[in-house]
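Regression test case RT-17, inverse folding.

Input:
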């Protein structure tokens, strides 16, 4: 009889493994569907309406989103631009002296909440907001420059999509900028971009008009250097270290069995048992289970504070057991994620005793990530950065089994 019981037990465990189970160190079985799941950088949402996908965010009690305050960031970028303009000489900014500031807008992804927020923030600050984030829909605005009020016209807005279908494409921005410089001549007084990658792409255009101010977003290392050298006028830091650390800290807290407010507070808003606490400002939105870093404008006055290598000294070595995390990045070629976010993740993960397995997509097809979202039983938690913001269910469907 005893031998039969052992055989039945073995069969049960085999079936559990087949259904996507994993035996942890404390001998309890954890189904993939019950493991921590953190979406980051791309919030599960409808690409048309921007509405948060509640079904995805409520996949289980351990599902969270970590990003930054997108709406707030758009406003910060808008203020960065108008504050800079207010201090300038109108006769120098208005290149053809027609009393109108003409600008072009590089749009990242028309279906991305962050891109929409930045477009809205820019247009509201310049008075060109016409109620939509459509790249072609704006109105005549106004702005103060050196005490004078000038009209503002968005000469053209364009979504930067590469020949391979990838969005936020720097090469597409280079090509667009070359065309804009020729088409608009001295009517073009300013360039604004939804991110640094596209802004730096614009600067690569051989005919970029010398002295024309250009603003980006992300505070990537090359953009910060460009501000220091006078090539880029300004950018916005979305506090990448805070985002990367929060992504990992939420996972760490969930793996350590924390519940309720402790999941998004410990090590983030307040010190955890190891004395860890993120230094940058963070906010939490309970309705969407979102941990968000706040934004800061960067220009020639403060760019040195954002140079590469300034890691958060508030994060120290944890003594918790090492755990394995499968993490996806939507596009290996994305400038912000590859040059800023991933290095930050790789810096903080060992401090939190998290062993990362990173898989990267092509920025175009969800399958480029999903096909690598495998061996799920081998991991204790998952961190997902989707190609499309409405693809959350594709990932949770794989965690059912």
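Golden output:
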């Amino acid at each position: 009889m005893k031998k039969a019981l052992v055989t039945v037990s073995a069969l049960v465990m085999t079936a559990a493994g087949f259904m996507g189970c994993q035996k942890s160190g404390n001998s309890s079985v954890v189904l993939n569907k019950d493991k921590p799941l953190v979406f980051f950088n791309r919030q599960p949402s409808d690409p048309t309406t921007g509405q948060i996908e509640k079904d995805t965010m409520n996949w289980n009690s351990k599902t969270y989103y970590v990003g930054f305050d997108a709406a707030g960031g758009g406003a910060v970028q808008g203020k960065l631009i108008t504050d800079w303009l207010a201090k300038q000489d109108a006769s120098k900014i208005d290149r053809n002296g027609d009393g109108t500031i003409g600008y072009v807008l590089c749009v990242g992804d028309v279906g991305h909440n962050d891109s929409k927020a930045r477009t809205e923030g820019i247009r509201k600050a310049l008075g060109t907001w016409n109620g939509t984030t459509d790249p072609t829909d704006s109105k005549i605005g106004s702005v103060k420059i050196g005490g004078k009020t000038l009209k503002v016209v968005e000469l053209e807005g364009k979504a930067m999509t590469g020949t391979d279908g990838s969005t936020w494409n720097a090469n597409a921005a280079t090509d667009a900028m070359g065309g804009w410089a020729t088409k608009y001549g001295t009517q073009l007084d300013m360039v604004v971009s939804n991110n640094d990658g596209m802004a730096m792409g614009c600067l690569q255009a051989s005919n970029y008009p010398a002295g024309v101010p250009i603003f980006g977003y992300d505070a990537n290392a090359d953009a910060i250097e460009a501000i220091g050298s006078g090539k880029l006028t300004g950018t916005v830091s979305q506090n990448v270290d805070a985002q990367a650390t929060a992504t990992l800290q939420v996972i760490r807290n969930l793996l350590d069995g924390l519940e309720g407010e402790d999941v998004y507070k410990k090590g983030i808003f307040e010190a955890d048992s190891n004395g860890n606490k993120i230094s940058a400002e963070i906010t939490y939105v309970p309705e969407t289970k979102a941990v968000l870093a706040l934004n800061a404008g960067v220009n020639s006055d403060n760019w040195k504070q954002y140079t590469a290598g300034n890691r958060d000294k508030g994060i120290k070595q944890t003594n918790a057991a090492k755990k394995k995390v499968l993490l996806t990045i939507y596009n290996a070629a994305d400038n912000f994620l590859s040059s800023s976010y991933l290095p930050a993740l790789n810096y903080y993960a060992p401090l939190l005793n998290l062993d990362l397995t990173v898989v990267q997509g092509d920025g175009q097809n969800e399958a480029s990530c999903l096909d690598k979202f495998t061996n799920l039983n081998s991991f204790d938690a998952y961190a997902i950065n989707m190609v499309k913001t409405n693809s959350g269910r594709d990932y949770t469907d794989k965690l059912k089994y």
